[in-house]
From TrEMBL:
Involved in the biosynthesis of UDP-glucuronic acid (UDP-GlcA), providing nucleotide sugars for cell-wall polymers. One of its GO terms (biological process) is UDP-glucuronate biosynthetic process. Its EC number is 1.1.1.22. Belongs to the UDP-glucose/GDP-mannose dehydrogenase family. Signal peptide: none annotated. This is UDP-glucose 6-dehydrogenase. Keywords: NAD, Oxidoreductase. Residues 327-453 form the UDP-glucose/GDP-mannose dehydrogenase C-terminal domain.
């Protein structure tokens, strides 16, 4: 059997590597239009940082796993074609800032239609709006040349940073297909691929539209949990309760469960924001305004939380950060990844730069080149009217941004340190050494509850931790909401 995956990104690469590992008799080709990405997949430095991935790629590459820019050849030879291209939020025109941009998806679908000469199972791996499978069928069968296409939805649930573990031991594999005999047969073929390593009771076959929608709903639910606990973090700060204790107490109820209850200064990443926007847009297109407003609130609380964090930083430091050096630890949207797409750190940086702070940013996996690119590119403001794009930093503001080679360099001479992602190394820093190298009073603003505030207070720091009881300094300062 031959499998081809269109899109060699954060999903296509790891997913296909694991299929190749677990199904040695299957030939897997991952194709992409990006020459640079494919070259990186064929090198010793993969285009994405993902723990454990390199070993699998190195084991399978050249055996039954290949990476190529020859999209036509591999698509035409394949029995199963996965579409795993990017489906970002539209930034222009109808549905800007809301709808999923299906440009890449359509181009992949058209390629399949153009080059196929044999029957194929076409699998939606990308996250797409519900009923996209219908459009896919139309594109493929418009001029089908007698070819039989079966369409399946097989959304991916891996999280970055734990992709390999998630793929090796998934909670579930979802296969959505049509309720026809051919549809059921196609679903069985894909099920047999996963059955090489996934227990049968974890492979769920459902209706095509349910599978497409389940992916958006799964992300919306996870993000909703974070926004819920983040909203409570604000109340904890106002009342002296501790959000970690509240989360533990609530999460112990087996009906609630403990996952995704870590309060933070806001969630980010390439998925949650764009998938909720897509869900909201679909609701609106179906006339469900109240339902759309309900889910939009998850994003509003996320924005509230990010801006609340920035206000805490500025107001604690005498309400002025002009010319003050602030160390920013962490730039990717979470630990164990170099991915900066929709990282919430950008919003904090922008907020501090608006108040004329000087930033020294360090992330173990984000290069200076990437950081500058992210900070200077235009960013969509989802909550404003269409075509509203903000240039994140002006050239003058860019002069206020520096990158550091490590956390100690970032904190040298700084007035404050913001901990903005949860890399393990940030837990283990020598905070006494950091304190000694900083201006006094020395502030730590922990946006992810990575450090023990009491230990840092004992060193001499003034500490703000999301949702934790405030120390006297922070408590005495009124913050505009
Ligand atoms: N990143 C994640 O953790 C994650 C997890 C689950 C689902 N998803 C979903 O999976 C999809 C892919 O996400 P990603 O993070 O891998 O995106 P990505 O941007 O990392 O990769 C997509 C790749 O597709 C390529 N591409 C675009 N159009 C193409 C075409 N016509 N022909 C060949 N290649 C083409 C791009 O060059 C790019 O390398 C998205 O729909 C996303 O929402 C992502
Ligand atoms: O308790 C928590 C858990 C996560 N986060 C933040 O939420 C964001 C997303 O984190 P995570 O879900 O771990 O990473 P993603 O790689 O974005 O994975 C999500 O998005 C993927 C793409 O759709 C899905 O496949 C995954 O199932 C889903 O978890 C990050 O900023 C995290 O720091 C919190 O603030 N608190």
């Amino acid at each position: 059997m031959k499998i081809c995956c269109i899109g060699a990104g954060y999903v296509g690469g790891p997913t296909m590597a694991v299929i190749a590992l677990k199904c040695p008799s299957v030939e897997v080709a991952v194709v992409d239009i990006s020459v640079k990405r494919i070259a990186a997949w064929n090198s010793n430095r993969l285009p994405i940082y993902e723990p454990g991935l390199y070993d699998i790629v190195a084991q399978c590459r050249g055996r039954n796993l290949s990476f190529s820019t020859d999209v036509e050849k591999h698509v035409s030879e394949a029995d199963i074609v996965f579409i795993s291209v990017n489906t970002p939020t539209k930034t222009f025109g109808l549905g800007a800032g809301k709808a999923a941009d299906l440009t890449y998806w359509e181009s992949a679908a058209r390629t399949i239609a153009d080059v196929s000469t044999s029957d194929k199972i076409v699998v939606e791996k990308s996250t797409v709006p519900v009923r996209t499978g219908e459009s896919l069928k139309k594109i493929l069968t418009h001029n089908s040349k007698g070819i039989n296409y079966q369409i399946l939805s097989n959304p991916e649930f891996l999280a970055e940073g734990t992709a390999v573990q998630d793929l090796l031991r998934p909670d579930r594999v979802l296969i959505g297909g049509l309720e026809t005999p051919e549809g059921k047969k196609a679903a069985q073929v894909l099920k047999d691929v996963y059955a090489h390593w996934v227990p049968e009771d974890r492979i769920i076959t459902i209706n095509l539209w349910s599978a497409e929608l389940s992916k958006l709903v799964a992300n919306a639910y996870l993000a909703q949990r974070i926004s819920s606990i983040n909203s409570i973090s604000a109340l904890c700060e106002a009342t002296g309760a501790d959000v970690s204790e509240v989360a533990r107490a609530v999460g112990k109820d087996s009906r609630v469960g403990p996952m995704y209850l870590n309060a933070s200064f806001g969630f980010g990443g390439s998925a949650f924001i764009k998938d909720i926007l897509s869900l909201v847009y679909i609701c609106k297109c179906n006339g469900l305004t109240d339902v759309a407003e309900y889910w939009k609130q998850v994003l509003k609380i996320n924005d509230f939380q990010k801006s609340r964090f920035v206000k805490r930083v500025i107001s604690s430091m005498f309400n002025t950060v002009v010319g003050k050096k602030i160390a920013v630890l962490g730039f990717a949207f979470k630990k164990d990844t170099g991915d900066t797409r929709d990282t919430p750190v950008i919003d904090v940086c922008k907020g501090l730069l608006d108040d004329k702070a000087t930033l020294s940013i360090y992330d173990p996996q984000v290069s200076e080149e990437q950081l500058i690119y992210d900070l200077t590119m235009q960013k969509l403001d989802w909550d404003r009217s269409s075509s509203n794009q903000l240039l994140i930093l002006s050239p003058t503001e860019m002069k206020q941004v520096h990158t550091a080679r490590n956390a100690y360099e970032a904190a040298e001479g700084a007035h404050g340190v913001c901990i903005l992602n949860d890399w393990d190394e940030f837990r283990e820093l020598d905070y006494r050494k950091i304190y000694e190298a900083m201006c006094k009073p020395a502030f730590i603003f922990d946006g992810r509850n990575v450090v023990d505030p009491e230990k840092l207070r004992a060193i001499g720091f003034i500490v703000y931790s999301i949702g934790k009881p405030l120390d006297a300094w922070v408590k005495s300062i009124a913050v505009a909401v």
